[in-house]
Amino acid sequence: MTTQPKKAQYEQRGPVPQDVIHAVDFELPPLQAGQVRVAVLAAPINPSDVLTLTGEYGLLPPLPAVGGNEGVGRILEVGDGVTGLPAGTVVLLPVGCGTWTTHLTLPAKGLVPLPSGVDPVQLSMLTVNPPTALLMLTEFVDLQPGDWVIQNAANSAVGGYLVQLAKLRGINTINVVRRASAIEAVKASGAEHVVVDAEDLPKRVRELVGDVPVKLAIDCVGGVSTENLARCLVEGGTLVNYGAMSGERCMISPRYFVFRDIVLRGFWLSQWFKKAAPDKRMAVFGEIAGLIAEGKLQARIQASYGLDDIREAVAAAASGARDGKIVIEPNGPSRAAI
Ligand code: NDP
Asked: Which residues line ligand 1 (CB under 6 A)?
């Protein structure tokens, strides 16, 4: 385990995300009453982390900042007055606390203990992508077993979680990717129907699954891909956008709103966090943590990096055609650790 505390910090934002971040040493502050010291086990690099470094995300922390929005850690030491969280407990790190660091000193209050004996890398991605997939499946359309959903960027982490969660609910998915080389990976995550995006997407979908009524379309690409999905929907269907991986605005002809009564909605997990009642939040995270612990919900990992290689890690995360997530393990490989 690393002894010198280290964090991946940035003092400015810029167009090349890996150019603004670097690893710096720091001193641990004295542990106060009510606090715990945590060794960070694993933290992913999500597209939102990359957009935070470039300054294009909807929520930007003040500078200087430590990268990383989510992750898990193990409690090393507890301050006076802390009960119920003994040293050794694996905990979910609070959202937005700067997780690309070896150590965090955090208030014990509000920390969520996680099941033991579970791969920390899979647990580290619990906060952002799985609830996004679950909520998009459940909050917009009252889907029943046997219903059909279509999504693009299906080889993304969100896409993979959505396939697995839909399957558990008996919901059928049509999975759109932008390159044929991604098809096998999507099938490996449990998807039966995978198709490459194109102008003639509705025809390709009909050839694949027949003329099924698709009630919900889920878009994180934007550009013409948004309209390609809309054209696959049943009359009155709902299209939910939650990202813009193409960097383009959603391009969709008014004809789909006017003649086909298509509804276009947006989803942002941060907004949901703010508005959802605490028991609803607990229910969503409880379901997801349980499924990850049982091995029923997982994401593919392309590579894991230490903090000294943070620039290489960010560059890898920012590039396309990956086969899974890039994760940071600040204290070294953690999979065998619990
Ligand atoms: P991943 O890093 O796992 O995957 C990225 C995906 O984007 C891949 O399918 C990739 O395809 C695709 N992609 C990359 N560049 C382009 C491009 N130029 N045009 C089209 N597709 C592209 O992503 P995540 O699962 O972590 O996140 C997926 C999306 O979900 C992101 O946009 C993210 O911001 C968004 N998100 C939104 C949330 C919300 O609350 N609104 C919450 C969580 C995530 P390829 O492999 O072919 O490069």
From this structure: 46-48, 128-129, 132, 153, 155-158, 178-179, 182, 220-221, 242-243, 245-246, 267-269, 320-322, 325
